[in-house]
Each structure stands twice: as structure tokens, then as C-alpha cells.
Amino acid sequence: MENASHLGTTVAWLGFGLAFIFGFVANKTNFCTMGAVSDVVNMGDWGRMRAWLLAIAVAMIGTNALVLMGYLDLAKTIYTAPNFIWLAYLVGGLSFGVGMTLASGCANKCLVRVGGGNLKSVVVFLFLGYSALVTLKGIFGVFRVSVLQAPAVSHTFSGSQSLPFLLEGLFGLDHRALQIVITAILAGSILIFCFMNREFLRSPDNILAGVVIGLIITAGWYVTGKIGFAENPDTLEMTFFGTNSHLAESMSFVAPTSYTMDLWAYWSDVDTVVTFGIATVFGIGIGSFVYALLTKSFRWEGFTSPQDMFRHIIGAVLMGFGGVTAVGCTVGQGMSGVSTLSLGSFLAFLSIVAGAAITMKIQYYLMMREA
């Protein structure tokens, strides 16, 4: 059992290292998924959106390459489960999109801003984490399971909800061949869309963010799906060590924030340990903090008014609820989930973007009416 504990610790430390790089690069390049949607909706600027899409394409290629090399089994992830909870993906995604707009950024951006000295994001972090916790285990969780994940509004596939498995019978190809074809079509289309734009080619920060973060998503899958997959000495069965889900995981920042709250609350419980997800929460913030110190960009920032604080709290609660309900955030579903080619991940991803875009349009309308 000592070796098993050591392996879990190794997975957590590797997760911290990957997240440290994520936070450092995200702060340097101003990588922000909410900002990407805002740039498109309000200014017609697709620069940061292309960076996000590039990260998705790189993650998609890397993740499916790991599968083809036998280093990762996508059937053993939360995203490809046969239970297609479409209403939860839709409501959770919309809620998260609205929440991240009200809170001035998604869960990842919140952690990056905490590292940069933003006290508003500290408040968002606390309310987001608590909201996620009660959505996982508490009062919000009852509504999530009994209403949004009820059998009447769910569909169970005979196997994985990954697109290659779902389309296997339609084209007469096995799922591995379809996996290559679908990855090539989707990732290839995104890469063409990104690099056919001259302005994007002249924005090294956006290219750096997309490539590095996409590779980090891939590396996260390798750490938990390959390095952390070993025989349990107690049961003699192959087990995933170092993850809260006991499955393969990559970057996601809503549920891990709630696990962090749980760890702090039950610190003296010997069964509560730092996992891959919890380590990434600390890694993002510390990586961002180090960048802020090195560039002397660290500065304290607070709320401008009680209304500003109230808006951020509401946004944080919606993000915590939405991120757990949709089984991921802009990074969890938008990158890690989409990289598995999961049908639910695509639905959650589009719902998050729609929720954010609609909220931004409403905010702009209200601002113009007041003006």
C-alpha cells in the first residue's frame, strides 16, 4: 500500500507542475475563455478565440494519439460515460456561461487572477468552491440528480458516448478508424481556421497559449491515464491512482475547487489527500503568482462597489453549480472533454459559449439604455 500512496503523490506533483506552467502561460498571454467570447461578441476580434480553439485542436490531436499508442483508455473517463445527461449538459453549460460573465472570468481565469493579487477573484474562488461542493454532495446536488439527471431527461447508450463509438455502425468502420478520421477533420478544420488568419499568425502570445495549453491537456491525460494506472496491491486490480474520480482525468477547475474546500475542512482526516485535481488548483495560482512577481505586474485589486461584489458572488455560485452539473468548465469540458470526442462535451461547450454570449448581449443592451 505504501507504493500505491507514493504513486498517488507522484501523480499529484506532476499535476501541480503542469498546472504551474498553465498558470504562468495563461497570465503571460492573457489567455481567457470568457475574454475570448467577449472579444468576438463585443468587438468582432477572434484572436483569443482562435487561441482557445488552437488549444482544443492540439489537445484533440494529442489525446487521441495517446489512445492510438495504447497509453489512454477513453472509455475510462467521466466524459465518455454511456449515460448522456443532455439536460444537465445544457442547463449546466448555460449556467456556467452566465456565471463566468458576471464573475469576470471562468474558474481557470479566477485562479490566474488570484495569483496576480485580485481580491475579487479570492471571493469568487470561495463562493465557486462552496457552490460546487453543495452541487456535488449537498442541497444543489439533490436537484441536479433528481431533476437534471433524471432518467426521463437522459439517454443511455449501449456503450461510450464518444463520437467514434456512436458513428461506428453508420459508416461500416471500426471506432479506431473513425477516431482518426473525426480527429483529422475536426482538428484539421480548426488549425486551418486559426492559421489562415494573418493577424493570428502575428500574435505569438495567442499561438503560445494555444499550443502550450493544448499540450498540457494531453500531458494531463498521460499522467493520470498511463503513469497513474497501476495494480492496486490490496485488490490486485488495475486502478487509477491520484484522482478523485478514480478514472483518468486532465485539467478541470470547478470540481477540483470543491475538493480543495473538502480537503481544508477535513485536513486531519488521514483518508483525505491531495489529488491530481487539487494539486492543479494550487499550481494555476502559484504559476500565475510567479509570473506576476517576475514581471512586477502583481497588484492588489478589489471591488469597486457593493453591486460589483454582489454580481461576482452570483456569478461564482452559478459557475460552481454549472460546472459540476455540466461535468466540467471551459477547460474541463471545453478542452479536456472535447479532446475525448464526447458528444456531451460538445453540447456543454456550446452551451457555455451561448450562455456567455447571451449575457454579454444583455449587459451591452442595458449599458446602452442607461447611456
Query: What integer value in Å does the Rg equal?
Result: 20 Å
Name the helicity range. 55-70%
The residue-averaged pLDDT reads: 95
How many structural domains in the coordinates? Answer: 1
Low-confidence stretches: none
Tell me the number of strands. Answer: 4
Structural class: mainly alpha
Number of H/I helices: 17
Gross morphology is globular
Give the neighbour order of strands across the main sheet: 1-2
Order of helices and strands: HHHEHHHHEHHHHHEEHHHHH
Percent strand? under 5%
Oligomer category: single chain
* CA(first)-CA(last) distance: 65 Å
Biggest β-sheet description:
2 strands, antiparallel
Characterization of the model:
- The protein has one domain.
- Helix content is 70%, strand content 3%.
- It has 17 helices and four strands.
- It has helices at residues 2-29, 33-43, 47-68, 86-102, 107-115, 119-136, 139-148, 163-166, 168-171, 175-195, 198-201, 204-227, 255-265, 276-294, 306-325, 332-339, 343-370, and strands spanning 83-84, 155-156, 229-231, 238-240.
- The strands form two sheets. It has a two-stranded antiparallel sheet. The protein has a two-stranded antiparallel ribbon with strand order 3-4.
- Strand 3 (229-231) and strand 4 form a beta hairpin.
- It is globular and about 60 Å long.
Essential attributes:
single chain; 371 residues; two-stranded antiparallel sheet; 70% helix; globular
Summarize the structure.
This protein is mainly α and 371 residues long.
